[in-house]
Amino acid sequence: MPDQHLILRIRSGQSDKALATLYHHFPMVRKMIRANGGNAADAEDIFQEALILLVRNIRQRDFTLTSKLSTYLFGICRLLWKDELRRRSRPIPHELAQDPAGTEAPPPHEEKEQQARLAEKALDELGERCRELLLLFYHAGMKLKDIAARMGYSAENTAKNQKYKCLEAAKIRLKQLQQIHQTL
Amino acid sequence: MRKELELIEKIEAYLQGRLSPAETQAFEEQMAGDPALQDEVELQRQLMTGIDRAGLREEVAKARKRYTIRQRILKWGLGGLIIAAVAAALFYHQHTFTPATHGAARPVPSGIRQLPNLNFKPADSAAIVSAYVEAHGKKDTTLQPFFLNASRDTVIETKKGIVLSVAANTFLDEDDRPVTGMVLLILKEALDPASIMTAGLSTRSGTQTLTTGGMFFVDARQGYHVLHMDTSRPIVVQIPASGDQRNMQLYKGRRLPDSTIDWVDPRPLEHGLVAVDPRLLDFYPPHYLDSLRKWGYDRRDRRFTDSLYYSLAAAFHAAPGVSEAAPKEDLPKDRFDRDRDTVAPITDASRRPYYHPRPCGINPAKIKTIWAPEFKNTLIATREFEQRLHWLHRAANADKLLDLYITHLDWNLSDIDSLVAGQSVGEASEIFGYYARLHDGKVSNPSPQFRQLAEYYTMKARAYAEAITKTENEYWDHQAYLDSIATGKRVQHAADASQRQANNYGEELLVNLKETCRQLGYDFVPNPPPAAFYTASITSTGWYNIDKAVKEATADRTTLDVTDPASGKRAIIKYSEAHFNIPGWQTYDRLYVYLLPNKLSSFMRISGANGKYTEKLNELITYDLVCIGYKGDQPWYYQQRNIQARSYANIRLNSLSPAELNRQLNQAGSLSQSSDLQKENSFFQFDIKDQRRQQHNRDLEALKRRLISMLFPCWIQNQ
User: Fold this and answer.
1) Which of B563, B619, B611 is nearest to B588 (CA)?
2) How many CB atoms lie within 10 A of CB A101?
3) Less CB within 10 Å around the terminal CB: N or C of chain B?
4) Which of A107, A91, A88 is nearest to A99 (CA)?
5) How distant is the Cα of A99 from the closest Cα of chain B, in angstroms?
6) Contacts of residue B265 in chain A, CB cutoff 8 Å?
7) pLDDT by residue for chain A (184 residues), tens digit each?
8) How many interchain CB pairs under 8 A, A with B?
9) CATH topology of domain A3-97
10) Amino acid B532: pLDDT
């Protein structure tokens, strides 16, 4: 699938299909990470994180692609792996230290990513039903009426109310997590 | 909607740009002056990002799954799905595996070896096996094929003793739909170093060398379709353990391009739990059975120990959460046996509530609920839970902590332990922390109905609490009713006795008067109430004196010796003592001695003590002697006619049946006497039972008080 098609799909909310295609770049990333002190599980984690960042970047209005999408993705993986090695206080291999030309992935905003990860954690701790409800509404863009039918709520309004209650609970948990994170 | 929720809605509209320009401006102005609102907006913005990331992560995971399946099919052809692992099982040998299944699969006979037919039909199982074996090299005889019905729970045991418990609908097709029909499961095992080496398996994870407890490989096929697993229905695998089992972990095998396997993704192993028959477990509080035995009760009488313990649930009646009315049919059948325990009065209902109104500890109704067949095959019916319950009984918030186990039946036991440790304090926190570190898993229950069970528990515990309380109340209400009946009978009996004495006195007085008149030469005219009166003046006092003397003699039962002042005649009626001596009187619980006077309508009960009874006999009357004794419910009887005024030293009673006693009493004395005796005897029989009933109730209350102070010590401390 040409890169432009992939970008269009991601922007039109069909990121699942685009992701399945992009996953074929995984072996390349795994090889790079193995060669630089990581194992296959590290590669999996880094690659998945990179895919998330990629999709989020593509959705930004000011996103313009000046290289191949795979190169861009690979660039993100390199950056993420470097960060991870730093976090683990491990030496950065020479190969990674210099960014080759054509890798134009912007460095991920560390603090924002950290916040987003905390938010994700808060969501995970929320309980399966709340998580599902919020994901269906905000991520999958499903209508409240359909959500109510799918999740067994008596009415659309019940689902709506429940949605806000879940958000409230998530906010409270996120606030706690942030406090814990700040004190660490 | 609450104020807080409205704010969330407003912020959401702002973040999504759904506010009008004017509203947006107003909201931003409001934010500028309100740092707290700014924080709220920022928090919600981050949360939206988090939700988006979580959604993307799920999509990425799906993409990975599709990619992996595709890669496997491409790479190995038929050599598909690996769920292989390096493991050391910590299923102890004494725990024999209980198959929670219906049809166990059987290995396909090893003789099946056909040439692979490229056009085989999916249903042609033998051909598939052959093709599979072919694809793995002809010499690989270590593959073990099993066929199982995908819609049924199945337990498989390999040649080397690995046991796999496969739940129904575990296997999914490419579209994530559960497959139906027969599924081919290919297993390969390498549990000892020799078989690991001959199978060409490595023991490396990245750059590290692993100490292996064994490896196995699982592949599932239907026709030539590679199946994958529903991750919510893991296959529970038990691997025979040997050597050092500490720190063993489960690794997943990842095939490398050079066809070696890298072991990745280590996970701690779970202790699988083995459910046993709930009746083999002891869910009573600590020391309950021991104490009963010490106090002289039969601890093996499960009917008794159960009903006694469960009856304490009535004390929890006011406890929160168990107050709704129970359906009538839930009344337990196994409470105290009312017919067997004929019990006592004196207890009036008002002095019944001997419990303190602030209960603590576990409500016995909850124990009754979980100690039931419904919970077999859950973690409740395990030795491991039994150990924890022992400590739960002692915990201050035991009731709540127990609920945690019931509402998380599908969790690993150790995870619930952590939860419990977090919610308890002091010793309990330490104990459950220790349990949490044991990594106890769960019962392999392929078709869990855990949610329903948790609901069942809530409903049933409440129903039992209600029913026990109701039964308990009914029991004591009934006792109060029996008390009132007994009191009535006693009053009636006392009234009958005094009436009998009065009648006897009147009749004997008449006998004596007649005889006195005869001896003095008067005509005796019994004086019925006259229809009319004559009035006359009295000229003599004699008659009145005689009358008075006879009355006194009759009342005191002393010899009458009176001389008529008018005629000088003398009248004598002798009263002489008879003595009755009953040897072995101590052996009787009750002993009654009666004289049946032939000229009186009722009997006389003779007073006495220590086996010695004395009465003065009227010479005008002949008497029969009747003795009735009771040892427990067993009656004893003696009768002798025509008693003389002398000493009867050796009266020995004979035992007889209650019916025989009735017959004897029917024949004793006159008709009215025998009827009175029957009445007296039946009262005593009632009284014997009723005294026992009373004693039973007193014992019961004492026992319960004793139990409560022992089983619910925190309760006592509260008082």
Assistant:
1) B611
2) 7
3) C
4) A107
5) 26
6) 41
7) 678 888 888 888 788 888 988 998 999 999 999 988 888 889 999 999 999 989 988 888 778 877 888 888 998 999 899 888 888 888 888 777 766 555 555 666 677 778 888 898 888 888 888 898 999 998 888 888 989 888 888 888 899 999 999 999 999 989 888 888 777 6
8) 118
9) Rna Polymerase Sigma Factor; Chain: A (1.10.1740)
10) 55
Taking 3-state DSSP, the helix, strand and coil percentages for chain A, each rounded to the nearest 5, stand at 75, 0, 25
In chain B, which residue's Cα lies nearest the Cα of A157?
B1
pLDDT, residue B130, reads 61
Model confidence pLDDT, tens digit, residues B496-528 = 888 888 888 888 888 888 888 888 887 776 654
* Among chain B residues, CA nearest to A166: B5
Reported as a pLDDT band with limits 50, 70 and 90, residue B88 is very low
Q: pLDDT at position B710, please?
A: 81
**Average pLDDT of chain B, as a whole number:** 75
Domain regions of chain A by residue span: 3-97, 110-183
Taking the CA atoms of chain B, what radius of gyration do you get in angstroms?
45
At B513 the pLDDT is 86
Candidate from A124, A139, A174 with C-beta closest to B55: A139
pLDDT at position B26 is 92
Q: Which of A112, A134, A165 is closest, CB to CB, to B51?
A: A134
CB nearest A39 (choices: B51, B63, B264): B264
> Which CATH code of 2.60.120, 3.30.2020, 3.30.2010, 1.10.10 fits the domain covering A110-183?
1.10.10
How many residues does this entry show for chain A?
Answer: 184
Q: pLDDT (tens digit, 9 = 90+) per residue, B116-164?
A: 222 333 334 555 566 566 555 544 567 788 888 888 877 777 887 777 7
DSSP H/E element including A7: helix A3-11
Given a cut of 50, whether residue B477 has pLDDT beyond it is: yes
Give the CA count within 13 Å in the CB-facing half-sphere of B338: 10
Residues of chain B in contact with residue A20, where contact means CB-CB under 8 angstroms, are 62-63, 66-67
Contact assignment for A165 to B67 by CB distance below 8 Å: no
pLDDT of B114: 28
* Cα-based torsion angle of the residue sequence B120, B121, B123, B129 in order, rounded to the nearest 10 degrees: 20
**Test mutation, A26, A118, A171, A173, chain B, max B CBs within 10 A:** A171
Contact indicator for A79, A66 with CB cutoff of 8 Å: no
Q: Is the dihedral of CA B585, B586, B587, B592 positive or negative?
A: positive
Four-point Cα dihedral A72, A74, A78, A84, nearest 10: 110
Q: What are the extents of the domains in chain B?
A: 3-71, 78-269, 575-669
CA distance B392 to B421: 11
User: What topology does CATH give the domain B575-669?
Assistant: Immunoglobulin-like (2.60.40)
Pairing of strands B575-581, B634-643: unpaired
Quote the CA–CA distance of B418 and B410 in Å, as a whole number.
Answer: 15
Reported as type and span, the H/E element at residue B712 is none
**A20, A51, A116: residue with CB nearest B50:** A116
pLDDT tens digit sequence for B658-713: 888 888 888 887 878 888 888 888 898 899 889 989 999 998 888 888 888 888 86
The full DSSP string for B240-251 is ---S--TT-EEE
Beta strand B647-648 with B575-581 is parallel
In tens, the pLDDT along A41-68 reads 899 999 999 999 899 888 887 788 778 8
Whether pTM exceeds 0.90: no
Q: B204 in contact with A at a CB cutoff of 8 Å? A: no
Question: B412 is written with which tokens?
Answer: 């690993």
Whether B97 shows a pLDDT value over 70: the answer reads no
SS3 content of chain B, % helix, strand, coil (to 5): 45, 20, 40
